[in-house]
Amino acid sequence: MVEFLQFLVPGILIGGVYALLASGLGLIFGVMRVVNFAQADFMMLAMYLSWALFAGGFGLDPFLAVPAVFVVFLLLGMAVHWLFIRFVIGRRENHDAQVILTIGLGLIFQNLILIKYSSEPRVVAPSYANAGDFIGDIFISRVRLYAFLLSVLVAALLFVFLNRSRTGRAIRAASENWEAATYMGIDIDRTNRIAFGVGVALTAVGGSALVTFQSITPFVGFRFVVVMFAAVVLGGLGSVSGAFVGGVLIGIIQSVSQVWTSAAVKNVWVFALFLLILYVRPNGLFGKVQRAI
Amino acid sequence: MRRVVPFVVLIAVVAVLNGWLDQRFYVRVLTLSVVWALAGVAWNLMAKAGQISLGHSAFVGIGAYGFTILLRGGGTSPWTGMVIGMGVAAAVALVIGLPTFRLRGFYFTLATISFPLIMELLVSHYGDPELTVPFHPENEWKFMEFSDSHTYVWVGLGMLVVALVISELIDVTSFGFALRAIRDNEVLARAVGIRTVAWKSAAFMISAALSAAMAVLWVKAVLRVTVAEEVFGITVVIVMLSVAFVGGVGQTWGPVVGAAFLIPLAMFLDDSIGESVPGAQELVYAAALVLVALLIPRGILPAIEKGCRRLATWPRPSLEQTGPSLLGRLVAPPPRPSPLLRTPRRPLRPRLPQPSDAPVLEVDGVAKSFGANRVLSDVSFSVDPGRRVGIIGPNGAGKTTLFNIMTAHLRADAGRILFKGVQVDHMRAPRRYELGMSRTFQVPQGFHLMSPLDNVVVAAIGASMPDPVAASMAMLERVGLAGKALAELSALTTAEIKSLELARAMVSDPDLLLLDEPLAGLNEAERARFFETVDELVAPHTAIVVIEHSVRSLIQYVESVVALDEGLVIAQGPPEDVVSNPRVIEAYLGSRWMEHARDQ
Question: What is the spatial distance between Cα A106 and Cα B43, in angstroms, rounded to a whole number?
Fold first, then answer.
């Protein structure tokens, strides 16, 4: 039982971070129906930014750097939307273009970072990196706990933003019914741009939360791509709150599977669950039934 | 002839380069260009059906590991290993495909990513992350161990030509028609008898087998060692995607053009600045993907063809008025159905006979809910052969849902559908079409990337007609669209689209024709004409069920009416009785009007 809990608790903690990573992907899909394959590479870029702020002379704690990361990636996301994404939004014929555009952008980010920083793994180790506390027999890593708390805080702020602010409501309206939203005088291009920026920034903050216990390489994103998709699909593609629950579930499965199989194949369980959900409930665990024609 | 020229050009170019180039690096560039062209052609077979797979490295990995293990274990020839690997890859594709093909669009693409990831993790952890390929210099051909590296180019060229021939054959037969129909409009394809899962599975299996074959050549000629991270890796998929999208997605020759352009560019760049810029190759693919997505999403080949078409008609304004110029006919001949389609084919399964004592359609106690929303409850009626039945009811009464259940686009929660006395509930949409059930749609559906003629040809192929092209042309003549058989679908008027839908629905000579709001969007004159056209087209045995809001037009045409309201049959019988039924009037006009009428 203790062994099980020893896996369950870190699973929940890392799951909170997955939830934050996935909520950005889910928000973007929900609003503009774009599956952003570059999402995990924005996370990678944010990890490098946190690393640069920490190791590059400023000595800025990665958790304190979060507001700066959020703002930088909000602007970066909006710029990427304005420069690229807005041209491939909408019609069904654009699906292929969306897929290859976002894959291409992700590759460009990876290789630019590779050129600049080489493939040497980078680590961010603040003084408390190895600290932790025992609750009963369960060891809880301090950095993982902080990462989880940060994720919950950001999720709460996201909830307030989407439900209380004018822009947030516009985003929800666009996500609910794109066409009707335009009739209500919502500027869809602006809403998309902001949603893309916020979505990217959410995932970026998730990346900052990870750096204290995840080493950074230009290709680190790929390990998280399918985890993020799995979380989003689990919760129902396009649902932000669903993505959150999905993320936590994925973290738990990844971690608890180590009770039975090696840590090296923990992601096999995640991918298998991902496929199972796609086959059995393609609209997610809480998804709505849609009309066929 | 037009189809042979590219093959001659390809063989000539590769042969000249292979004879002329001597430096090891250049031969390597040539080899890899051929290898990736082959991989792209394999990947593109799925794209013909509009399916973007990000999981093809699963099959490359199976091919690579398969032949390496066999060669290491028992000294099996890589050729034998290749054949076995192709078989395994095809089998795996079938197993993966059957559940995955139920997913549409993004969901399919997302699902495919996970297969190579799972395989790579399992192989690396429980098997060998890396296998060296044993060296067998004793027999060059048996062990594919050529001392002259030019030979690998010849072998690769041979394989590429075979793959291209397969791809061309698919294009010109009903196989290709089915795949294009699926890409264009999968719901409609199923409604006209295209067995989408079967065709997609077939394409996926061939595509997987070719990917596995490519893997053997890749490992033997270039890699020399089988590494799980490499052969199952995402980079394989990215190169496949790049060459296919740059050249032309879904186009047989697209990947060849894409590979000829991208692979040398990436390799020369890597050779010149790779030391200082480690990601140069990947940046080429990435930049190509981004540029293609933004500028020419269908790729170079279709862009060139479009340009030629425009050039061909210049300076004359319209193609329809004058026809293409000589130049136009040379570079971009008008699309023409292939002669291979003209060969008579045996229907897969013969139609059901119509029993003399049974109605053609029996709807028995059908119920359907969407979540908590009950759309149909206990709907029952029957239609005799050759009869005309109208279905009326206010918006939201469940009329279209009823049609969708009859044609298996939706499943009923309860009740039975009998067609010619046989229960058809377990049969899917293509099967019901084959049996003689045909329909039109409330929102007219079409294959927008095809000509009007091809729209009807797909339906004729779905019904296993002996000569689909001739039957389709004859049907277009009867609805008065013969003059626009090869026009763009977007150039048709609403009335013409309706006629095209009718032609498509009638080409199989159905026993039951379902018309969903056929008069919507037509003007008075066209409305008056429409049912006359239907009567000219249908055989005496064909029963017709019409959903229509224009009750006046409808009751003049049908022999009986079924009235639905909120999912219940509120009246059925002769048209005059049903329209004077107080419950029907109430449903249409509301109870307030009824009180008002009573007061008068």
Answer: 21
Structure tokens at A207: 């990346």
Q: Are B114 and A101 in contact (CB < 8 Å)?
A: no
Q: Which range scores top for mean pLDDT: A65-69, A287-291, B487-491?
A: A65-69
What whole-number distance in Å separates Cα of residue B207 and Cα of residue B175?
14
Q: DSSP letter for A55, please.
A: H
Q: Measured in whole angstroms, how far is the alpha carbon of residue B21 from the centre of its chain?
A: 41
User: What is the rounded CA–CA span in Å between residue B468 and residue B218?
Assistant: 42
Phi, psi of B390 (to 5 degrees): -105, 145
CA atoms in the 13 A half-sphere facing the CB of B100:
27
Query: ipTM surpassing 0.85, yes or no?
Result: yes
Q: For residue A98, what is the nearest residue in chain B, using CA coordinates?
A: B293
Q: What tokens does B40 get?
A: 């792209």
Q: Of the segments A177-191, B10-24, B528-542, which one has the largest average pLDDT value?
A: B10-24
Averaged pLDDT score across all residues of chain B: 87
Q: Which residues in chain B have Cβ-Cβ distances shorter than 8 Å to A100?
A: 241, 245, 289-290, 292-293
A150's tokens: 């940060």
Cross-chain residue pair B279–A118, CB shorter than 8 Å: no
Task: Decide if B56 touches A, using CB distance below 8 A.
Answer: no
| pLDDT per position as a tens digit, B533-567 | 888 888 888 999 999 888 888 888 999 999 998 88
Both tokens assigned to A30? 């929900």
CA gap B585, B591 in Å, rounded: 9
Using CA atoms, how far apart are residues B30 and B153, in angstroms rounded to an integer? Answer: 7
Which pLDDT score is estimated for A7?
A: 87
Q: pLDDT tens digits for B464-508?
A: 888 888 889 999 999 888 888 888 888 888 889 999 999 999 998
HEC string of B302-319 equals HHHHHHHHHHHHCCCCCH
- Between CA B183 and CA A93 the distance in angstroms is 10
Q: Pick the more confident residue, B286 or B580.
A: B286
From residue B355, give the alpha-carbon distance in Å to each of B384, B388, B422, B430, B542. 11, 19, 10, 22, 14
pLDDT at position B449 is 85
